[in-house]
Amino acid sequence: MTRTGEGSVEGFRTALAAVGRAARAGGPETLTASVEAVAPLLPRLEGAFAKTAVLAGACVEWGGSPMAPAPVLPRRAAEALRLWAQVPTVWQTAMPGRPLPEPEQIAPGELVRIFADRGGRHGIPGTRMRRTALSWFDLEDWLRAMITVLAHGDFRAAVPPEDLQQVRIAAAEAADRSQRARWVHDLASVLDDEPLIVLDSATRRGFALTMSGVGDNFQLHTLLADRLIGDPSHGLLPGERPDPAWVHAATCGAPAVGPVNAVVRRFRLFDAQGEYISPEGIPADIPTIEGAHVIVLHPPRGRFSWANGRVHEHMEPSLALDRLLGDQEAARWFARVQPAREHDLMAAKPE
User: Fold this and answer.
1) CA distance 16 to 12
2) Which pLDDT tens digit goes with each residue over 191-222?
3) Residue 3: beta bridge partners?
4) How many CB atoms lie within 10 A of CB 252?
5) 3 state SS of 302
6) pTM, entire model
7) Looking at beta carbons, which pairs linking 338-347 to residues 24 or more positions away fall under 8 Å?
8) CA-CA distance, 129 to 222, in Å (whole number)?
9) With contact defined as beta carbons under 8 Å apart, do 23 and 64 qualify?
10) Please, which residues bridge with residue 229 across strands?
11) What number of other Cβ atoms are within 10 A of residue 283's Cβ?
């Protein structure tokens, strides 16, 4: 596969579109075969040819298996994130005093030439400078592919933990400048088959749950209310159950439920250290005790609502209520948590 010349790029784009149409028409087996065919190419691709990763993601979204790219795509995406973060520094050393142009303001070949010249003067290999320059143009393609495949639990399970860690680190550093990088960071942080202990401050009851694929704490709020509010005579919590439309939006339906039927929280969540758990956060950030994430429920204090059921459209969560804790077991957990810091402004402000 040649990587230079406008004609070759245009021909590549035409061929890629044709492959996509044929794969989609062929059904799941053809889609999977297409993903398997392009996966080995991904580590070597850059610039316009990174669209191949987008094609792989599209084939997965259309019904193909996401498994083939697991050994290669996260590493390549992490590399693209790291190189992209270096672009402003390299530009300033090469073109001091001039603002870094946006990708649409400069031709890829021109940026490659500038970076290669700078690298040559400092003894940096030309291949590294080339790939750094092209990351300015291809990063979003790698991120788009990652967003698609990371929504699948079997893909997340197949990626080596150290590769996911590198993705999280690199994506976190780019998250303030790229919305897709923020999504990739959160998806790479998703917990699967993770134990969760939930304690209710009002009733002193406790629950053991297992969560997988929960994208953010807004979604966790809704799912907890659905699993834990019910008949108190059966050990569940008193209160108003969430609207079924909220639960549908938080699990397998269209993520947005709309402002007319906004989700209203049934609890405030605190962690084992007594800190308020922000709805904008993710479950991975909730501290653990002996390997279990611990949440303490407090009354909702007013009406706090939001419009979305989940942030990652193609990731379906699981939150299973495994068992009710016995009174003595619940008491032991309560003895290990700190009182809620009610002075926390995020928890105490009027709603």
Assistant:
1) 6
2) 999 999 999 999 999 999 999 999 999 999 99
3) none
4) 11
5) coil
6) 0.90
7) 338/272, 338/273, 338/274, 339/274, 340/201, 340/270, 340/274, 340/276, 340/296, 340/298, 341/270, 341/274, 341/275, 341/276, 344/275, 344/276, 346/276, 346/278, 347/268, 347/270, 347/276, 347/298, 347/301
8) 47
9) yes
10) 237
11) 24
Distance (Å, rounded) from C-alpha 9 to C-alpha 4?
A: 7
As a whole number of angstroms, the distance between CA 257 and CA 316 comes to 16
In eight-state DSSP terms, residue 307 is S
Please report where in the chains the tokens 């400092």 appear, as a residue: 122
Q: Residues in the chain, how many?
A: 351
Q: Within the chain, where are the H helices?
A: 6-26, 28-38, 51-61, 73-94, 108-121, 126-150, 153-158, 161-174, 179-188, 217-228, 244-251, 327-334, 345-348
Contact 295/198 with Cβ under 8 angstroms?
yes
Which of 43, 83, 10, 101 minimizes the C-alpha distance to 114?
101
| Dist CA 296 CA 224 (whole Å) | 12
Closest CA to 247 of 309, 314, 313: 309
- What the block records as the tokens of 128 is 């590294």
For residue 278, the tally of other CB atoms under 10 A from its CB is 15
Beta bridge partners of 194: 211
Single-letter residue type at 58: A
CA triple 145-151-225, angle to 5 deg: 150
pLDDT digits (tens, 9 = 90+) for 133-165: 999 999 999 999 999 999 999 999 999 999 999
Picking from 73, 79, 80, 78, the residue whose alpha carbon sits closest to that of residue 57 is: 73
